[in-house]
Amino acid sequence: MIQVRALSKLYGKKSVVEDVTVDIQPRKITSFIGPNGAGKSTLLSMVSRLLDSDTGEVLIDKADVKKMKSNDFAKKVSILKQSNYMNVRLTIRELVSFGRFPYSKGRLTEEDVRIVDQSLEYMHLTDMQDSFLDELSGGQRQRAFIAMVIAQDTEYILLDEPLNNLDMKHSVQIMKILRRLVDELGKTVVIVLHDINFASVYSDRIVAMKDGKVVKDGPTEEIIESAALKEIYDMDIPIQKMDGCRICVYFSS
Amino acid sequence: MRNSIKLLVFALIAAAVCAIYLFHELNGSFGYALPKRTIKVLAMILTGVTIAYATVVFQTITHNKILTPSIMGLDSLYLLLQTLIIFFLGSGHIIIVNKQVNFLLSVVVMIVFALFLYKFLFKKGNQPIYFLLLVGIIVGTFFSSISTFFQVLIDPNEFQIVQDRMFASFNNINSDLVWLAIGIVALVMIYAWRFLKYLDVLSLGRDTAINLGVPYDSIVKKMLIVVAVFISISTALVGPITFFGLIVANLSYQFFKTYKHNILITGAILMSIIALVGGQWVVERVFTFSTTLSVIINFIGGVYFIYLLLKERKAA
User: Which of A50, A98, A106 sits opposite B207 (nearest CB)?
Assistant: First the structure.
């Protein structure tokens, strides 16, 4: 379990994340939603130690993140940010092989090769594993990065807006894969989403943030609900039930 | 061609160039000319190794392929130091005449400056690396301006001595210093060996590197210190020549097209040995010392730099 305890982050005098305490349940998809600038990405960056927190602590399986060795942490938690700019030219397979770095430090063992093969297979990338990343479409690139994270084989997978710039088809594809990671491989997925309907359809739990604070935290059904959404987004959002999914019709409200 | 074969070819060319430099028109002068030439070749190899290594590492850390470590202002500091000593103490002073003293003083001043700069910048948590570069540019410009100021005031005869220091030269190299420098560089290389594997991951960017378990800030700091030590040693030994690193590093990227730093660095090192030893041979035999190697290198380097800028502009 990931436990966030009284975590805060200040930029100058402005606090972007303020006294956040939240528990991430294992073997579930937890989505972070909320308006722009609510501090979702900042919180995720602090949990994954890309960013130092100013106060508070993050515990992963009861161990303090700041006291963990970088390499041990990388075997437990992986993070994928929204933009992955690189100035080297890599093939998909080379990128995915980097996922094994925490284990083998660049010298792949037979087991590493096997896991890389599996990860490529899992993301349906085996046929194009030798293509270069800069020749791929946004969706394929995103899948390649997720394959790297799968190869990293961590219990916790954090994703910061993985659906950014993706069309509907690829977004659905990626959300289904994340669902499978939880249901089939028993991973814990934490994801920052902007589209609340994706959050509603695919996640087990939702944490809503606003102005650096957690305003709602609970199972999906409790959050995707007009009164709760009003509090989060200051909008009247009607909810329609379709085939067991709760869909927010926010376009004309 | 596989990269290992390419490396082998480059290694053979490098060995051949060194052999030609050592034995061409030796006329049996094994006792006098050969040891002198050997020291020169060693100095050139050392310079090639340090500049190539430092530039590739620096470019990986900064994620920028058209930067050289000279942006940190170490070259300008070296020139300022030499100018100030000659201005205040005169060119006959022991610090200028005695090469060992001058070498040690220059190295110490440059490394202390680099450490001071890093300490100042890293004190307040994790400043982005571009902040360091910006401060380096400003401080470097400041140093060169003061140097120019004193060079204008200086006695013209003394200025000749300063001018000698402004360009890298392999013509008067003290053999004791070469051995000392090789010793220091070897020790630093052994120290930095275990960080080399992280460089491949660093080129994926900060976030991905941290995700993959690289202790990013500590590695970057240590590698920057290694870069500063290498640049200081080569500058103090032969003079400012960091621009040269830009050429060999980029040639290495173009030839090997890989992310693996052991290949990139080895390739860049071999290319710089070929360029330095071969270039020096041309300077000595073709131009009969009418120009210096660093003038040629700066000319070719400048042309190549413009080509890189145009190419990058097209790609963007």
Answer: A50
